[in-house]
């Protein structure tokens, strides 16, 4: 069915005359968004602030650069991108219609399909997408200097990352909340669809495993962190029950309660860490923590979404956004001077101690989620589209949620480059390089020959003591480095040196909350995908309410990413150092797959949409070139520091020859096993992605030639509810909300019982 017939169907949606209007008219929307002299002045000032920030970062910079310019450049660019570019996408590419009921309204079941307040859903979506990527990637990429990462994080999200999230969310919502794999099968045919499904499932295993690995590295042997993060689970359960049964709809009220409980958990964590029983029972080995996260992932993925997932995500988002805004305010107040070069020698030579490889393509796959993330496509086509109240909210949730994640990435980058460079490299170099000791770290970092770096043992020991940790050497994964940078900046603004330990562990909990919400949401999405795939042969599995199917598929996916997590935790070369490049490449390959599916869908919508295809085609082309190039490096590079297979054969040959220069036999066997897994997955991922991209291009060309294609959207159903589109309701929306309040109060009462 062509696009014109679809729009015709949408135009015939007749509202229930007994209900208030379910959507604003075009005239009302135009009235709310009309330009006034004050708006023009405000946007002119925003543009000037952004231009000044970019000028200071990219052109007028001396030996140091003030961190305040990062905030100006980022915020101004985000505001302009959201206000103007996302509006172009909404108007010309997607064309939402609030008269049309969403799957959450049509299929409401109280479990997976639940109409959710847009602010709570924004929190859930942001928390689910904002895992380790925006924290770890920019921290690791700091070894290449501040400018390349800053440009990609800010510009990349406006033109690529937010575009993917917004479009995938919208088209999944129009298809009943189908996953990206299901949409690929419908839109690209059997070969392209099967390749997309297999790639999505395998890539999901890698992504969730690395997310969990970052948490393990952050909480390992840290009683304070273990206690505080563990307490967030009962707090989230309480919030879910509070909103469901005790005080439905009281979002602000439960937010305040949750925030107070979170702060209490952090403070109590400091007390617990000083007790004998805290040291005995919560000073956990990384392997133990890994198993705990595996068990948590299973339980969280099978519980009803309203009980743990949504309130936990909202709770963590409340804290995440608050912390990032607070950090931005502290940067403006403290104005730390950045001494890291705009572009370092490591970016040119490709021989960095944190990760190896040249700036192109490894900067882009290392930053990953901060600018463009395929993992987001799984969330945007998994849990979130089943919870959206109204179609126009997808812009705020999809595009706006990704912009906030990018801001997290910029703040992570600033925090990482604000600390001493010597300490940065000591924290992020693998234990194999530093031997895990202060002396080894000092010798290794000083041997790098970095200008202006002269690391001493006292710098490492005094820093560890200041943040309440036994050691900060080889605390890889990015999370500890970000926590130290945040603590370094925040103590200058609030509390002084005496508050360093509090701010450090506050940041650790903040980061772990980020990541665990992505772990449980990712596992739930993977379960949906696997249920649908098995449903081809056993239709019963497609019923997402069938509990045996839920438990079986969840167990399979948890076992998959759990096995990779254990490999990473026990990796002799430092799990995050060797696995994160694979994570970044897999993540970006999945983004290319998602954009390819969106490209085909838009082409099928009809000729009036084709001239706007460049909005999706440009980020797709860039992601494809970057990821295929990076995959080629990892598969074919003869440099063992870059190529998985060259490193695999190096250790294999040494073990066969009885050469122990590279380590003990047990260590070499672990490296051989891990590099084999990484190298094999690299080949599989890039092959599947190329198949999907070729299939999508073929479908797109055919649709353009035919003037459209098959419409796989669900049949439109008239909506029977209203909700504002953005975070803050417009004056017209507020008037309409008042008419709907008695009806929605009845619905909340029904849900409570």
From TrEMBL:
Residues 66-630 form the CstA N-terminal domain. Residues 732-753 have a biased composition (Basic and acidic residues). It comes from the Bacteria. GO terms for cellular component: plasma membrane. Its main location: membrane. Keywords: Cell membrane, Membrane, Transmembrane, Transmembrane helix, Transport. GO terms for biological process: cellular response to starvation. It is a multi-pass membrane protein. It is found in: Cell membrane. InterPro entries: CstA, CstA_N. Residues 1-28, 709-753 are annotated as: Disordered. Belongs to the peptide transporter carbon starvation (CstA) (TC 2.A.114) family. This is Carbon starvation protein CstA. It comes from Microbacterium oleivorans.
């Amino acid at each position: 069915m062509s696009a014109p017939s679809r729009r015709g169907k949408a135009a015939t949606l007749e509202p229930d005359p007994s209900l208030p209007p379910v959507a604003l008219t075009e005239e009302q929307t135009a009235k709310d968004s009309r330009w006034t002299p004050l708006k023009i002045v405000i946007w002119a000032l925003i543009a000037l602030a952004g231009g000044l920030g970019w000028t200071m970062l990219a052109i007028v910079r001396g030996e140091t650069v003030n961190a305040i310019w990062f905030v100006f450049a980022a915020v101004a660019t985000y505001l302009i991108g959201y206000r103007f570019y996302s509006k172009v996408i909404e108007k010309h590419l997607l064309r939402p219609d609030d008269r049309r009921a969403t799957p959450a309204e049509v299929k409401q079941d109280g479990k997976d399909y639940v109409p959710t307040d847009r602010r709570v859903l924004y929190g859930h979506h942001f928390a689910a997408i904002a895992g380790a990527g925006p924290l770890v990637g920019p921290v690791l990429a700091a070894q290449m200097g501040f400018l390349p990462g800053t440009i990609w994080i800010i510009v990349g999200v406006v033109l690529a990352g937010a575009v993917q999230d917004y479009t995938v969310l919208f088209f999944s919502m129009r298809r009943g909340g189908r996953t990206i794999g299901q949409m690929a099968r419908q839109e690209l045919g059997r070969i392209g669809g099967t390749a997309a499904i297999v790639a999505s499932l395998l890539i999901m295993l890698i992504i969730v495993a690395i997310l969990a690995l970052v948490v393990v590295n952050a909480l390992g042997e840290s009683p304070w962190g273990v206690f505080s993060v563990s307490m967030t689970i009962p707090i989230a359960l309480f919030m879910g029950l509070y909103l469901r049964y005790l005080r439905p709809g009281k979002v602000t009220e439960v937010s305040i309660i949750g925030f107070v409980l979170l702060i209490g958990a952090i403070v109590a964590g400091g007390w617990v860490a000083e007790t004998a029983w805290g040291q005995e029972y919560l000073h956990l080995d990384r392997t133990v923590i890994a198993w705990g996260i595996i068990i948590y992932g299973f339980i969280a993925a099978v519980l009803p979404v309203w009980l743990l997932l949504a309130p936990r995500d909202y709770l963590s988002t409340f804290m995440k956004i608050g912390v990032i805004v607070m950090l931005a305010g502290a940067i403006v107040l403290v104005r730390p001077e950045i001494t890291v070069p705009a572009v370092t020698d490591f970016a040119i030579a490709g021989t960095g101690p944190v990760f190896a490889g040249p700036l192109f393509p490894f900067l882009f796959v290392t930053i990953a989620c901060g600018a463009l993330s395929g993992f987001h496509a799984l969330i945007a086509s998994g849990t979130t589209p089943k919870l959206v109240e109204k179609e126009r909210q997808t812009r705020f949730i999809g595009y706006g949620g990704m912009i906030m994640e990018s801001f997290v990435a910029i703040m992570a980058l600033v925090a990482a480059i604000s600390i001493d460079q010597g300490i940065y490299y000591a924290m992020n170099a693998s234990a194999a390089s530093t031997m895990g000791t202060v002396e080894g770290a000092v010798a290794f970092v000083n041997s790098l020959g970095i200008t202006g770096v002269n690391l001493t043992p006292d710098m490492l020991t005094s820093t560890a003591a200041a943040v309440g940790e036994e050691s900060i050497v080889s605390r890889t994964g990015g999370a500890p480095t970000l926590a130290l940078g945040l603590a370094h900046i925040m103590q200058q603004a609030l509390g002084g040196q005496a508050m360093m330990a509090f701010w450090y562990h506050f940041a650790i909990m903040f980061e772990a909350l980020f990541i665990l919400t992505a772990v449980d949401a990712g596992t739930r999405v993977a379960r949906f995908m696997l249920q649908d795939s098995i449903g081809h042969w056993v239709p019963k599995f497609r019923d997402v309410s069938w509990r045996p199917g839920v438990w079986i598929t969840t167990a399979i996916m948890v076992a998959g990413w759990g096995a990779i997590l254990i490999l990473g935790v026990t990796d002799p070369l430092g799990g995050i150092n060797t696995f994160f490049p694979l994570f970044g490449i897999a993540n970006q390959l999945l983004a290319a797959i998602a954009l390819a599916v969106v490209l085909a869908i838009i082409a099928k919508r009809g000729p009036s949409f084709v001239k706007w295809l460049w909005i999706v085609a440009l980020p797709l082309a860039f992601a494809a070139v970057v990821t295929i190039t990076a995959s080629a490096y990892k598969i074919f590079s003869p440099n063992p520091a870059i190529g998985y297979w060259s490193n695999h054969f190096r250790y294999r040959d040494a073990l066969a020859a009885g050469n122990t220069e590279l380590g003990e036999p047990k260590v070499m066997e672990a490296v051989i096993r891990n590099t084999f897994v990484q190298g094999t997955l690299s080949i599989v991922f890039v092959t599947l992605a190329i198949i999907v991209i070729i299939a999508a291009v073929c479908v797109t060309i055919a649709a353009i030639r035919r003037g459209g294609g098959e419409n796989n959207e669900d049949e439109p159903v008239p909506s029977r509810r209203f909700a504002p589109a953005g975070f803050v309701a417009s004056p017209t929306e507020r008037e309409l909300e008042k008419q709907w309040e008695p009806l929605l109060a009845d619905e909340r009462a029904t849900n409570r019982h």
